[in-house]
Amino acid sequence: MVFKLTDKLEFPDPHYGDEDGLLAVGGDLSVDRLLLAYSNGIFPWYSFRDSPILWYCPMKRFVIYPSEIHISHSMRTMMNKDTYKVTLNHDFEKVILSCSGLRIKQEGAWLGKDMIDAYIRLYEQGFAASVEVWEEDRLVGGLYGVTLGKCFFGESMFSLVPSASKLALICLAQTLESAGGNMIDCQFETPHLKSMGGRYISYEEYMKNIYEEDE
């Protein structure tokens, strides 16, 4: 069952969403609503640019645990060459604009101005982060997502050279692990993410990861 949101800051119980995870439609992209959504495993999506906001919460969650990130031999070789420099939160806006620009002509492109502005607001308030991959002074890859507690909720990534987004994801996982982070939410399964250690967990395990406290 898909619920229609009102101005009231609330979401329905995720267990009552559709089989594909679609839970609700409408609402807004305010910082408070986004934080409420992500803290319950819910994320926004547009089926096309002018559609209302769609909110998803699948019961099977595709995630990567930082300690389980898979680094292939070819990626290790690439990393050892030090061809690229990786930074954290060096240019969030450029990363999200690059993700949007590469998808602007795709059917169903969802990363439009409203979404971009919303995640920049989250970043400015300390609830989003980016990873950048540089070839000298040129941004050639990266990713961005939401940060809550020990978790990173991946939103989008891009590559202008082979494997740049893989490098960004590996560095994100390593940074999270060293800082005590416990989960990267990938939202949807892709062959790319599965090859790097992505796997499914239950919604219940997923929520435990979000609310896990320091010992």
Keywords:
single chain, 215 residues, alpha+beta, Alpha-Beta Plaits, Aminopeptidase, 2 domains, 7-stranded mixed beta sheet, 4-stranded mixed beta sheet, 7 helices, globular
How is this structure best described in words?
- The protein is an alpha+beta fold and 215 residues long.
- The protein has two domains: 3-59, Leucyl/phenylalanyl-tRNA-protein transferase, N-terminal domain (Alpha-Beta Plaits, 2-Layer Sandwich); 62-210, Aminopeptidase, CATH 3.40.630.70.
- 32% of the residues lie in helices and 26% in strands.
- The chain is built from seven helices and eleven strands.
- It has helices spanning 31-38, 73-81, 92-103, 113-124, 164-178, 191-194, 203-210; strands at residues 3-4, 22-25, 43-45, 54-56, 60-64, 85-88, 128-135, 138-148, 151-159, 183-185, 199-202.
- Helix 3 (92-103) packs antiparallel against helix 4.
- The longest helix is centred in the last third of the chain and has 15 residues, at 164-178.
- It is globular and about 50 Å long.
Topology, pairings included?
Blueprint: E1 3-4, E2 22-25, H1 31-38, E3 43-45, E4 54-56, E5 60-64, H2 73-81, E6 85-88, H3 92-103, H4 113-124, E7 128-135, E8 138-148, E9 151-159, H5 164-178, E10 183-185, H6 191-194, E11 199-202, H7 203-210
Parallel strand pairs: 1-2, 9-10
Antiparallel strand pairs: 2-4, 3-4, 5-10, 5-11, 6-7, 7-8, 8-9
CATH superfamily of the largest domain: Leucyl/phenylalanyl-tRNA-protein transferase, C-terminal domain
How does the overall form come out from the CA principal axes? globular
**Element order: H for helix, E for strand:** EEHEEEHEHHEEEHEHEH
> Total strand count, please?
11
- How many domains? The number is 2
